[in-house]
Amino acid sequence: MNPGRITPDDVLGACDAAGAAREPVTAGEVADRLGCQRDTARNRLEELVERGELRSKAVEAGQRVWWRPATESRSLGAVEELLPVEARHDHLTTELRDVFDRISDAFYALDTDWRFTYVNERAEELIDYRGEGLVGENVWEVFEWAADSKLKSEYHAAMETQEPTVFEFYYPEPLDAWYEINAYPSETGLSVYFRDISERKSQTRALREREEQLSRLMENVPGMVYRCRNERGWPMEFVSDACRDLTGYAPDAVERDEVVWGEDVIVDADREAVWEGTQTAVTDREPFSITYRIETVGGERRWVRSHGRGIFDDDGELVLLEGIISDITTRKERERELEEHRSWYRTLVENFPNGAVALVNRDLRYVTFGGTPEGDSGVTRTELEGELLRDALPAELADVVVPRYRAALDGEISAFEESVGDETYQFHFHPVRDDDGEVFAALGLSQDVTDRRAYQRQLEQSNERLESFASMLAHELRNPVAIGQIYAQQLSSQPDSEAVEYVEEAFDRIEDMINVMLVLTRGEEAVSDRTTLRLLPVARDVWEEIDTADGTLETDGDCTVAADETYLRHLLRNLFENALQHGGPDVTVTVGGLPTGFYVEDDGAGIPPDERETVFQAGYTTAADGGGAGLGLAFVSELAAAYDWEVDVLESEAGGARFELRGVGREQRT
């Protein structure tokens, strides 16, 4: 029926048809009768209340009922006018009894003393469980258990207010049933209709339990539950609250198509694949599982997986799609990372230099194996995978690696060298853990270092021979140098004193070269015990000893140095001569202290940045034509290393070279 055409008279007719005479009705009952919306029926009922043709009352659980107020029936009045008073009374009583007996619902009447005055057959069946009759009995004496119940409070309220009431009530044993009770008061008593609603209550309770179970299920499902139509926009008829967590959109906005899933949520590049995959599945009446990307309300891209199936009616027509959409972004990221790791591992396995790499499971079987020895051994990776280590390896090698693999599976890391037969191997064993930190495999790496170790031994032997030769040479040179220096001093009184100075200088130079050679070849072993020295007095003394021409020495704060004085003097002499050689005869050299050392700088040409790493190498010189051997700065570097100092070459403020030595007061390393 068109809601706009429903009249108050239609509603009055529906009220009369919905139940017995003057029985309260609900808006839902009227709406069912008229085929309209409940709100329409409620509005018309309220209009009738305003007109005084109906009365209304709120009952339990917020429900409201309406009924027609008691007025004299026109047909009954006509009958009464034709009969004498006593006859009219008997006629009315008989008519009422016939009406009440025909009522399918249970009915009984109570007077103002709460005594039964009438009980129809259905009521006797339900509540006269003793079979002793109820008429004339006091209801509260028959039902003693109801003295403090809702039944009594509702009856008394109806009598006091003279307004009907509707409520649900549970009758205990022996009835053990729920009843809907309609009580209508009058000045002479209370008329009560009641019907068994146990089945309806059971259904309602079961429905509520199913709804609660469904609600809990949807709350715990790892994703968004949905129901949609099979259209390209995927219009959603229902989405669970998880929609907000998944997309940022409110569920009701998606259900009202304010947000269209197939247009606003699914990434454009994936829409066609989602449609085709779904259509293939529903055509075959198979479940579908489709992975695609969505874009959240904040613009974030996420990967999701939709698991669902088509819902078909009895005629085989597709009605809806139902399923769950889960966020798999983290899984996708892990899969990508895992594939990267697999790629890296494959690269490592296939290109591991001069050795082997293997992954072993907890059963001590090869998961994978690779590296250069694979090709040399004639055993392929496929043949080794799945094999026990003891079966795949020579016994001598298995005795070495199997215990280490077991230790790695217990969480132990190890690295060592071991000779197996004529070969020497360097081994590394590491536990491999999962995301929970549990060890599930062991990684083993081995490299053949036989040639490397042989070369190291040769180098060590060569160094030993070189050191022995240097020591022997130094020893052999020191004796004639010492004799020459003695005799040169005796010649100093001769007229040709300039020649004597050259001889003395030459011997001193040879002495310097001997010291340089020893430091270069023997390193830390060449230096003797340290003495605490003041830097500036030593620096001035060294400056006076060399030919400084027109050069100038300036000082900037003193410091103490822990070193052998002979070697400190050689270091300063080499730095001074380097400044004079590259800065010219009028160079200014400055010696000053640093928080943990000292510096020597000049105002000469400086050292280009790209040469500062090579100036300390033995043989490096820019003055080879002037007789430079390239040992001076190499001696500075080696002496600093022997003393565990730090040395850097920088640019001075004047643009020249600046050498900084730090850590010069530290104790000698052990």
Automatic annotation (TrEMBL):
InterPro entries recorded: EutK_C, HATPase_C_sf, HATPase_dom, His_kinase_dom, HisK_dim/P_dom, HisK_dim/P_sf, PAC, PAS
Keyword Kinase tagged: yes
Entry keyword annotation includes Mitochondrion: no
Catalytic reaction list: ATP + protein L-histidine = ADP + protein N-phospho-L-histidine
Any one GO MF annotation of this record: phosphorelay sensor kinase activity
PAC domain span: 288-340, 409-461
Domain Histidine kinase: 472-662
The entry's keywords: Kinase, Phosphoprotein, Transferase
Pfam family name, one: PAS_3
EC number: 2.7.13.3
Protein origin, superkingdom: Archaea
SMART domains for the chain: HATPase_c (SM00387), HisKA (SM00388), PAC (SM00086), PAS (SM00091)
Domain PAS: 92-162
Protein name: histidine kinase
Lineage, top ranks: Archaea, Methanobacteriati, Methanobacteriota, Stenosarchaea group, Halobacteria
